[in-house]
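Appendix C reproduces, verbatim, an entry submitted by the partner laboratory led by Prof. M.T., so that reviewers can inspect both the input and the predicted structure.
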Amino acid sequence: STPFINSNNDGEWNYKDKNMALYEEEMDSAPMVASLLNKLAKYTNLPQGVREHEEAEDGVTRVAVPQMGTFIGVYLPCMQNILGVILFLRLTWIVGTAGILESLAIVSMCCICTLLTAISMSAIATNGVVPAGGAYYMISRSLGPEFGGAVGLCFYLGTTFAGSLYILGTIEILLTYIIPPAVCTDNNGLTMQNNMRIYGTCCLLLMALVVFVGVKYVNKLSLVFLSCVVLSILATYAGAIKTLIEPPEFTVCLLGNRSLKNDCFETCSKTEVFKNNTVTTELWKHFCSSEYSNATCDEFFTLNNLTEIPAIPGLLSGVVKDNLWSNYGPAGIKIEKTNLHSESPQSPSTDNDRYFVFNDITTYFTLLVGIYFPSVTGIMAGSNRSGDLRDAQRSIPVGTILAILTTSFLYISFVILFGACIEGVVLRDKFGFSVKSNPVIGALAWPSPLVIVIGSFFSCCGAGLQSLTGAPRLLQAIARDGIIPFLQVFGHGKRNGEPTWALLLTVGICEIGILIASLDEVAPILSMFFLMCYLFVNLACAVQTLLRTPNWRPRFKFYHWALSFLGMSLCLSLMFICSWFYALIAIVIAGCIYKYIEYRGAETEWGDGIRGLSLNAARYALIRLEEAPLHTKNWRPQLLVLCKLNSELQVKHPRLLSFTSQLKAGKGLTIVCSVLEGTYMTRKEDANLGEQNMKATMTAERTKGFAHVVVSSSLRDGFSIMIQSAGLGGMKHNAVLMAWPAGWKHPTDSLPRRNFIETVRETTEANQALLVAKNIDHFPDNQERLKEGAIDVWWIVHDGGLLMLLPFLLMQHKVWRKCKMRIFTVAQLNDNSIQMKKDLQVFLYHLRLDAEVEVVEMHDSDISAFTYEKTLKMEQRSQMLKEMQLSRTEREREAQLIHDRNTASHSVVNDKTDGATPDRVHMTWTKDKLLNERNKHREGMAVKDMFNMKPNQSNVRRMHTAVKLNEVVVKNSKNSQLVLLNMPGPPKNKKGDENYMEFLEVLMEGLDRVLLVRGGGREVITIYS
C-alpha cells in the first residue's frame, strides 16, 4: 500500500532516503552528515611534494597512508635542520671570542626566540590542517595574502641563502681540512675568497643537477646525513669526557704570547740537538735570513722565547677561568694568550706575520649574534611535513618543542665544554691553524678529528641539497597562490610537478650568496630573513588570540598572546642587534612586496587575522564616531551616488563616478547605489551582476568606495530607502550626488520628474546636501588635464559654505588643478556692491581660499514679454500634461472595471461562449469611450482656450528671476570649465512641481557643465583653526 493519498502511479515513486524527505531540497545543495564524514575520512593533506615527484618518476602510484610519528616525522628533521654548519665551523670561535658568559647569553637569546616562535607556530599549526607550504601557508592564512606573500618570499630567500651558507661551509671544510692543495695559489685572504667562489659555483651546479635529476636520492640520503651529525656530536662528548682521563696530544706553539701556525713546522723551539750538535729548527728558517745561528732574525723572534702548551688541557685544568670573558679585536690583530708576557720590538716588522694566527675580521658582540643565529633555524621542518604525519596536530608541537629543548641543551653544554676544555688561543683560532689545520672541535673529538671533518662535510652537503630541494617548492606554492602576478611563471614545472623554473631562480639567488664568498657575511643575511619570518609567526598567533575569532580553536593549549608578543619583540630586537643595515633592507623588501600585492595582487579571502583586526578596528571607530556629532573642521563630503543602470546592467553615466573620484581624491566615504524594479526573488542574479559591473566601472574610474544594488517595487521607493539607510553608524553619507534627469520632459512618462523632485525633498528633510550634475557625460574623465579655465561659483544664498568648499576639493585633483576659482555674488538695488566685494574678499582670506571675487548687480526691471510668454507656454504645457494624465488614468480604470465584470461572467457562462466575449467587450468599450474622451477634451479646450489663459503671477516672478539670472550667468561664465549654482528648493505646494523643473532648466540654459548645489543645513567650512 502506498503512503500517499490518491496515488495511482505507485511504481513511479522512489522511496530512497524517504526518512529524510523533509530535507530533500537542502540535500541538493548541502551534503548529508554521513557523506560529509565519509569524505573527510578519505582526505589526506599530502602536499604535492617530494613523494609525488618520486611516484611520477618511477611510474608507480603508491597508496598514500600517513604513517610517521612524532620522532621520525618531526623531531629528527628538526634536529637535522637545527644542528649544522655553525656548530662545527664557528661555535668554538664564538666561545673563544665572546667568552663563556657572553656566548651563553647569545645562545640563550636565540634559543628563547625560537622556543617562543615554536609555541606560536604550534598554536597556528594545530588550528586546522596545514597543507604544502608550511610556514608560508600558516602565515598567509593567518595574516592575509599581503603579509603572507611578503613573509613567504622572505622565508624563501632565507632558505635559498641557507643553501649558500651550507655550500660555503662545504667548500671551507674541503679546502681547509680535506684537500688544502686544491687551493689555487697561496693562502692570503683574497685568493681564498676566489677559490671559494670557483669551487662553490661548481658545487652549486652539481647539487642543482642532483636535485633536478632525482629528488628521491636526496630524500633517501637524509638518514645518512643525520647519522653523520649524530656521530660527530657523540664524538665531541666522548672527547670531552676523555680529557678527564687523558687530554689529547695536540699542542700549541707560542712565540712570546702569540700563537703560531704549526702546520709549517714540527718542532716548537729555535734550536734542537741532532747527533750531539745544536742545529736550528725549521721555525728558525721562517724568522731568520738563514739556517745558521749567526743569521739576522726577526726582532720579535729574538726577544721572545717559544713555549709549547697543550691545546686541550681538559675539564680539570681550570682553563675555564681564562675563557669566561670576551676577547674582541680588530681585523688583522694577532691572537695572544692573555696571561703570558712578551717583549715588544722597538721597530715592529710585518714580514713574518703570515706565520702567526690572527683575526680575519673585526669582532664584536652583535656580529657574533648574527653569525650564530642560523644555527637555531630549522624549527619549521616539522610543520613542512605535516602531510606525512599520523597525527600532525599532536606531533608538530611535541616534536618541534622537544627538538628545540634538545638542541638548546646541546648548544649550552657545548659552550661550557669548549670553554672548560680548550685553550683560549685555540678557541679564537677560527680555522684551526694552530692545531695543524684541524677543526678546533675536531681536536677535542674522539677518536680522531676525521670524524668531525667527514661528519660535518656530509652534514653540510645534505643540508645544502635539502635547501635546494625545499626553496623551489616554497616559491612554487607562493606562485600557485596567484597573489604575486610576476611570479606565476615559477608555478610551472616538469610534468611530474618538479618546479624547474623555480629551481633555476633559486640557483641564481644562491649564486649571489656564494659570490659573497664568506660564511661570516652570508650568515647575518640569512638571519634577517628567518627572523622576519619568525616575527610574523608570533604576530599571527598574537593577533588571532587577541581577536578571539570563533575559528581560533588550537588543540595546543600552552600558548598566550603575551608570549607571542615577547617572541615578536625578541625577533625584532635580534634583527637590529645582528645588523641594523640588513634589518632595514629586509623590512624594506618585505614592505615593497606587501604594497605590491596590495596594489596588483589577486583578490583573495583566506579568513585571515588582519581582516578580523580590520573589522574590530572598524567597529570600534564606528562606535566612537557616533558618540559625538562631527565638528565642522572634520566635515568632508561623504557621498551617496545615485547611479542608473542601462538595459544591459551597465553603468549609464561612468563620468558620474569619475567626477566622484575627482571630488573625493580617494578620501572619505563613497557609496555608489542603484535600484532595479521588481522583486528580489526574481531579480537576485540581475542585482549581483549589476553590482559586479558597478564595481568594475568604479575600478576603471578609480573610485574607491562601496557598491550596492537594491531591488524594489519602484525606483522611487528604492532610492528613498538608500537615502534613509545607506551607511552604518557614524559612517553615513551627508551628501547625495546624481545626474540631471534628461528625460523629464517626456509627455507620457512623468516618473523621472516626480522621482527627481521627491529626491530633492527627501535630502532636504534628511539634512543632506544635494549635488546635481547637468550634462554629466561632458565632464572630464580622470585621464584629461584641463590646461586653463575657471570654476565659477554663483553664490546666491548661503548654504553652509558647501559651494566654496567643492571647488577647493576639486582643484586638489590633477584634472582640475590648473583651473582658477571665481566667486560671483548678486547685489540688489539697495546693496553696496563695492563694500560687498571687500567683505567677501576678507571672508575668503579668513577661509584660506584663493579666488577671484566679482559682484554682479541685478536691478529691478520690468518683466519682459519674453518672460511672460515663456511662463504662459510652461503653464499651458503643464495643463495639457495633467489632462492627458487624467484621461489616461480614467481609461485604465474603466478598462479594469469591464475586465472584472467579464471575468465574473465567466464563472456562470458555458464554455461555448468563451473566446468571443473579451473581443466584443473590448471593441464596444473602445468605440464609446473614445468618443466620450474626444468630447471631453474638446469641451475642456473650449472652456479654457490656450490663447485666453492668463499665467499665475507667482510663476511669472519666478520665471523672471530664472531668465535674468541665466542671462547674467551665461554672460560671465559661458566659457568656464564648470559652473556651480545654488539650487532653489521645490515648492512646498506639490501642485507646482511641473513648473519647478522648467525653472531649473531655464536657469541652466546655454551652459555646458553645471553643478547644482543644495546645502544640508549645516556649516561645512570655518574660518577658525
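The chain has a mean pLDDT of 80. Additional entries are available on request from the coordinating office.
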